[in-house]
Amino acid sequence: MRKFYPIYIFAFFAVCLIPSAGLFFGGGGDTAESQDVAEMPSLAADGRFNEKILSDAGTYFEDHFAFRSEWVTAYSFLADKIFGVSAQDGVIVGTDGWLYYKDSLDDYQGADQMTDRQLFDLAHSLAMVQQYASENSVDFAFAVAPNKNSLYGGHMPYYYRGFRTEGGNLQRLTPYLKEEGVNYVDLYGLLRSQDEVLYHVRDSHWNNKGAAMAADAILTSLGKKHASYEGRDYQIRRDYEGDLDGMLCPAAVKKEDEVYYDPLPSFTYVKEVESNFAPKIYTENTSAAGSLVMYRDSFGNALLPFMAEAYGDSYFSRAVPYQLTDLFSCNADTMVIERAERFLPEMAAQAPMMAAPIASSDIPADAEFSEDIIQNLSVSDQGAFTRITGELPKKLLHTRSKIYIRVNGLVDYEAFPVALADGTEGFQLLVATETLEQKKNSFCAYLSE
C-alpha cells in the first residue's frame, strides 16, 4: 500500500497546482460572478516599493486563478446537493431552484427593522424633495421595487423562514409617506395582486413583464401619456441569465424565460452604453414629449426602456446621493426615484444634495435656537454650495421632529433629517456659499415637537 503513497502525494499536489499553473500559462479564469476584480499587482506604487505586494498578489490570484468559474460552480453544486446550503455568502439557495439575494434577509425576517424615527426621516425627506420639485414645475413620483422574497417567499429555505409579527419596513413606511403627501406608487400591492410570477427564478429582479407593469403604474401616477403594454403581443425566449445564478454557478448558468414585447419600446440611446446598468444613461424619443430625470438602482435596468419611451429626453442615474441640480441641467419636467426595498435604511441615512429650503412660517415666533445641541458639526465647501452636517441628541428628537438651522443669526433653513444605522441622529443642509462668511459662521438648531 505504501508504494502508492508517492502517487497519491503527487496527484494531490498536481491538482492543487492546476490553478497556479494555468494562471502562469495564461489560463486565468474568468470572473463572471464578480463585477469588481483585482488588477495585476505592481512592485512599485507612486515611485516606492509596494509593501502590500504579497497581499495584492493573493487578491489577484483569488480573482484570476485558472478554471475559477469551474471550481466555483463545482463547489456550489456540492454545497447545494450534499449540504443543502449556498456556497456564496450573497446568495440564498431556496427550493425548486429558486435563488434569493441575501441582502434582503433582514427585511424578510424582520431583523434590524427601521425605527419610527427613521421611517419619518425618510418620508419627510422625500416630501422635501417633492416640494422642491413642485416649486420648480417638476412632477414627482417615488416607487419601491419589492424584494423578491417579499413577494415570493414560499421558496425560501425553512431555516430562514420569516419570524416578524408585523409588516416590514416598506409596509410600515407607507403610512408615513401618505401622511407626508408623497406621490408614492405602491408596486408591492400591484405585483402582489397578480396571479403570475413576475420575477426571475435565478435572478433578484423582476422580468420585463413585471417591469412594464411597474412603469405603467409610475407613469399613470404622474398623469403621463404613454404606451400600454397590457395585452400587447410578446414572445418568450429562454435566453436570460440571472445575476444570482452567475454568482453561484458562473460556469453553468441556467438560462430562463424572458418576455420580449412586439414591438419593443421605442427610443434611442444618446451615447453608446454597454448595458442598462451604466451609471449614467441618456435617451431620446422624437415621438414623445417631456424630459425625465430618474434616479434608480438595478431594478431600473428593465424599467428603463418603458420609461424612456414615454419622454422625449431622459436621464437615468445610479449616483447617490441624488444630485438635484440634474433637474436644471436636463431641463426636466418629471423626476422619479426608484429604490429597492432592501435599500430603505440607506435612504434614511443619506440626504440628497439639494439646496436647503428657507423656513419662516413653519417656525414659532418663540422658538429657541441653540448652538449647544449640535454635535460633531462639519462644514465643507462644495463649490457653489456649502454642506453642513451635524449630530443631535436623540433624547431631544420626537418621532416627527423637524430640524431647523439658523445660520449666522440671520436666515433659518429646514435641514434634511438623517438617521444612521448605528442609531445616530443628525442633519444635513446645503446653503449657497456666497451667503456665508469667509471665516467664522454660527449655526444654531431648533427641533420642532
Task: Describe what you observe in this structure.
With 449 residues, the chain is α+β, with helices and mostly antiparallel strands. 30% of the residues lie in helices and 22% in strands. The chain has 3 domains: 18-66, no CATH class; 100-349, no CATH class; 375-447, Carbohydrate binding type-21 domain (Immunoglobulin-like). The protein has helices spanning 5-24, 53-64, 68-83, 105-109, 116-135, 148-151, 169-180, 187-192, 208-221, 243-248, 300-309, 326-329, 344-349, and strands at 44-45, 48-49, 91-93, 99-101, 139-145, 184-185, 234-240, 256-261, 268-269, 280-284, 291-295, 313-317, 334-340, 375-381, 385-392, 403-407, 411-419, 425-432, 443-447. The protein has a 7-stranded mixed sheet with strand order 6-5-13-11-12-10-9, with helices on both faces. A hairpin with a 5-residue loop joins β17 (411-419) and β18. α5 (116-135) packs across α7 and α9 crosses α11 (300-309). 37% of the residues are buried.
Layout of helices and strands:
Elements lengths: L4 H20 L19 E2 L2 E2 L3 H12 L3 H16 L7 E3 L5 E3 L3 H5 L6 H20 L3 E7 L2 H4 L17 H12 L3 E2 L1 H6 L15 H14 L12 E7 L2 H6 L7 E6 L6 E2 L10 E5 L6 E5 L4 H10 L3 E5 L8 H4 L4 E7 L3 H6 L25 E7 L3 E8 L10 E5 L3 E9 L5 E8 L10 E5 L2
Parallel strand pairs: 5-6, 5-13, 11-12, 11-13
Antiparallel strand pairs: 1-2, 3-4, 7-8, 9-10, 10-12, 14-15, 15-18, 16-17, 16-19, 17-18
